Known about the structure:
Low-confidence stretches: 1-48
Structural class: alpha/beta
Helix content: 25-40%
Oligomer: single chain
GO molecular function, one term: beta-glucosidase activity
Bound molecules: beta-D-glucopyranose
Number of strands: 26
Distance between the termini: 55 Å
Enzyme class: hydrolase
Main location: secreted
Strand order of the largest sheet: 11-16-15-14-12-13
Radius of gyration: 26 Å
Mean pLDDT: 91
Domain Fibronectin type III-like: 711-780
Strand content: 15-25%
Shape: globular
Subcellular location: Secreted
Largest sheet: 6 strands, mixed
Amino acid sequence: MEFLKGAYSMLPHKFRGGRDPAEQAVLSTKTVVSVLCAACSLQEGAGVPDLPNHGLSPPVYPSPPGSGSTNGRWTTAYDRARDLVSQMTVEERVNITQGWPGICVGNTGEVPRLGIPALCFADGPSGIRGQEFVSAFPAGIHVAATFDRDLMYRYGRALGDEFHGKGINVALGPVAGPLGRVAKGGRNWEGLSNDPYLAGAGMGAVTRGIQDAGVIATPKHWLLNEQEFRRRWTELGDAVSANVDDRTLHELYAFPFMDALREGAGAVMCSYQRTNHSYACQNSKLLNGVLKTELGFEGFVVSDWDGQMSGVASANAGLDLVMPRAGFWGDNLAEAVRNGSVSEERLGDMAIRILAPWHYLHQHTAYPPPAIYTNTQKHFPVDVQADHARLIEEIGAAGTVLVKNVNNTLPFKKPKFLCVYGYGAALKASPWQNRDRYGGGYEDNFGWNTFNGTLITAGGSGGSSPPYVVSPFQALQERVAQDRGILRWDFYSEDPTPYVNADACLVFINAYASESFDRPSLKDDFSDRLVLNVASWCANTIVVVHSAGIRTVDAWIAHPNVTATLFAGLPGQEAGHSLASVLYGDVNPTGRLPYTVARSESDYGDLLNPTTSSDPFPEANFTEGLFIDYRYFDKHSITPQFEFGFGLSYTSFAYADLSVSKTTTTTTTTDLAEFPDKNVRIVQGGHPALWEVVALAKCTVTNTGAVDGAEIAQLYVSIPGGDSPVRQLRGFAKVGPLVPGQEREVVFELTRRDLSVWDVVVQDWRLRRGVYEIWVGASSRDLRLKGELEVR
Ligand code: BGC
């Protein structure tokens, strides 16, 4: 694993799984028309399960031109973009639809005579990667664990301010693909949880934050990039085909992207793998159909890096910009327009779609030039960190999940003697040969590797480049010094020497993951033995897990000497301070698990591993449909170790008085239309009626414990019909902080989308007739109140 991670991070970006440019050159656009267009049309999948449209990618042509009709701001942006594009030659239009070598991870072509600059694209979702004087924010999964919309927005805004400060036009995030179907998925940690509603809340808030700072957000990867294994074309054959039925595609995987689109996302990145047998960046159903027609997308679709697999086919299927180089386009695209394989309108639409978000975000007026540097350049760095460290510390603490705490072990009460164990507690000395001021991330600059050093981010393009890292050891030292206590440590041994007088022993373990490979395991033996060895003599063993996703804990969680356990996620540069504030009770934990921790790996069943195959056309059949993570556990009555939405507080809460009511009622038999009104125009984000609040649920939450604290109240819905998940998250709210005895009313707004299913026959969102069960509680399994909503 360590070898793989190291190998990945040492590869120059362009070679990370990319196609050989020479090979691309020989495949001209015309060749591609005949060879690859079959891939964009209707195809039957082998062994297709009995699910509607499973494995099918119906052709959707022509590509719908962007209209700018979503709202006045888009209309103005489109007017300006159209005006510019009308003045451009075919060559100039082609030039801005392709990447060029430059200082950024991606650079578009420029048209100086019209004042159109090269747009600068940069990774990634949790901070600007590979630059100096930038912040390392918590990863997406950590932000999701806060269940806090306000923090999600402030995260996006701070990220956006940093991209803006560095003159980066386009931020390559946020992530909702992978969603997290496969427990061992290598990139699940980049995204905002495997629940589409929670991820959607994050996608919307982060997109709004980034774009409020004037930067174009790029929700990615559209769509179904659920595993790293064979995510790309290789010498073995085609990339894996993620085969999914139409309902699941909409209700699970497209769902969180809808929120980002609703908030005005200016770009969307299509993914590497095939979806229903057609490469995602040339899949007309996904791009022309779902994204640009159903969801009214006004912006541009950019390919994942070297993810373009055809020329004419991708152009006609709805791809607007190829990165990081011309790929199959460039001169070939100009030729295809001249010979009619791609229409002039389509090329014009690509250029308009690229320039419209640039105007929508007012980047055409005054935008700082890119301040992106390499090791060979001398410069005065632009410092964009501002006071983001405080926000990072706050989110770091808010996303830390306390899952075990017996005998009030935590919070600490001025302990005098702490022992600190495990590789995850501190930073490792930086090995000179790997140091790199730019280009590298945490792995290179902090000498971090799989089992050495505090895990604050994970690997690949989603990783961050911290200015510094406050390790747990550093933060604990600060606290112990204040309390005039003592500290002993051993970061290396698997079986450390006992200190029998310690008040508590903290054991720090990690679970790493990275882009480009899936996780070999959800646990590791060294770490499990380390915990058991310490627990064998230390009666107050506290385990802290920094993990890039699920980490199973069956080896030691029930040990009587393991008195407390925290899932500390991937908290970013202030890791130690965030953790210490929870351990010492300055922050009463509100973090909740954004995934299900099973009692054993095998409980995930077919959702544990990616689909591995050496077949030239590998297939991953998503036969579980809507039933991933807690929906799978609920459906099959599997008891988890710690369920989705679970997390402890230092206080307790009582729930009461649930009422559920419709916001619109009539005296007729049909009180809410089954389908959105067909005569209303689709805008970006989908039919406007999907976002209308159709019902309210209200209850009270009371702090019944002895200390101040906030609760994360969660609302789950059972949709009638017997073919939906037992329960689905459809609301959450941070309530408080409340002082002991204090009560507060919580109001959950339920939109039409929250209560609808995707009707595969009508091809629209349908509000089912019948009785909806509404559950409110503290997790997906700790349900305290039940109500009903009848839709007639
Ligand atoms: C990743 C993208 C990333 C791009 C640019 C690709 O390998 O899949 O998420 O934005 O590289 O670095």
